[in-house]
Amino acid sequence: MPFEKKRLKSLAYIHYEIVDLYEIGYLFSILVFGLLNSYVIWYVREDIVSKGNRKSIRQFIMKSGHRIRIPIFPGIRMPKSFGMGMPRFVRSIMHGGSRAVVVGWVLAAVLMTTGCGSMSGGTGNGKSSENVNVPGNTSASAKTTGKLKDYSVQNFFFDTVISVKITAGDNADELLQHCMDMCREYEQIFSRTDENSELYKVNHRTTNTVEVSEKLAFLISEGQKVHELSGGKFDITVAPLSDLWDFKSEDAVVPDQDKIREAQEKVDASSVHLDGTTLTFDRSDTMIDLGAIVKGYAADELAAYLKGEGVTSGLINLGGNVLTIGSKPDGSNWKIGIQKPFAGGELIDTVEVSGKTVVSSGVYERYFKQDGVIYHHILDPDTGYPVQDGIWGVSIICDSSLLGDELSTTCLAVGEEKAAEIIESMEGVEAIFVDDQLQVTTVGGG
After folding, report:
1. Burial of 277 (0-12, 13-18, 19+ CB in 10 A)
2. Per-residue pLDDT averaged across 359-387, rounded?
3. What pTM, to 2 d.p., does this model score?
4. What 3-state class would DSSP assign to 414?
5. Looking at the structure, do residues 166 and 303 belong to the same domain, yes or no?
């Protein structure tokens, strides 16, 4: 049954520990022991996401006042709320059921009978399994051993849903857990909003000279390089403008012109100086935001770790940053879709890659409309307003996801003509541009 916004009671954010739950065992334990007192479903709706509210990806939507009938068991009704950690087949039950639902219930029954609480292995048919759960507080160390199967894990990091799929042996759970630990570590370094993160503390410094970790220093230096490459259009100090526009809000509006000018004065990456791990600011109110490139950095690091542990086939998806490790288990290329702007998840193109990354950015990712005009999150530091250069989406195909992040945002910011010059000056980099007339242009690749 559909869940309309007007009938929602409240929102609750997904928390990363949910992935540590043994979902099927958890579900059946609460069913068997009657611990249901309200239902919560993980509700991801593409049309909400396409309208710019990316927070909706991580929302558990709680609905009250009704019971739910399970379609494949019409005589059974569930009380109001399920609790968290529900696997995908349970979510599909809510919307009408399918063959996957039946399979899910059968698997759950088998697992409960055998005392297992986690579905962690694949079928060995070359397809990645879904929602594999990883035990908490473990780390990977051994090389891939044992019979190879397909494993995957999903979680929420970097303000988006992420997934890692690998073909591995008996230590797959440890490998995936370590990947999640790495993502958690990167959030603790690079998050601008987490009060416990290193970057948050840098932005709320009491002195304009601070010592930073090597990882933070590296990513800041990368941001400064891109600032120069883009002619200042890519700026890691754009945070005051981004906060003012507040594209994550459901009530975003065009800010007052005076406030835009005031925020602009605080944006200037050239006022940040890095010497080794010593960071010096010319202004006390300068803030750094690395959100445009942190996913690319993380994807590269995850891939390097997995390759070092013997993984030869895998897919890392960090919400727009897709990085492939080798080819698919059957030896074929990975097929990666290019999203059609403002089309609710519809694809406009597909690329086939092996051992490369496909990084996509677009003005459709986060935006709002006011008086019939679209205002998106790619801001021009020179004007204080969203860039208007005729490009709606950019996808970069190359070897490094970090480079892909840097180039995709830069191309959106500088316009198609300048972007094409940048791409064609680089070896092994290909770009796909989608303009505001939905025309697709491919450049580079040499």
Report:
1. middle
2. 92
3. 0.70
4. helix
5. yes
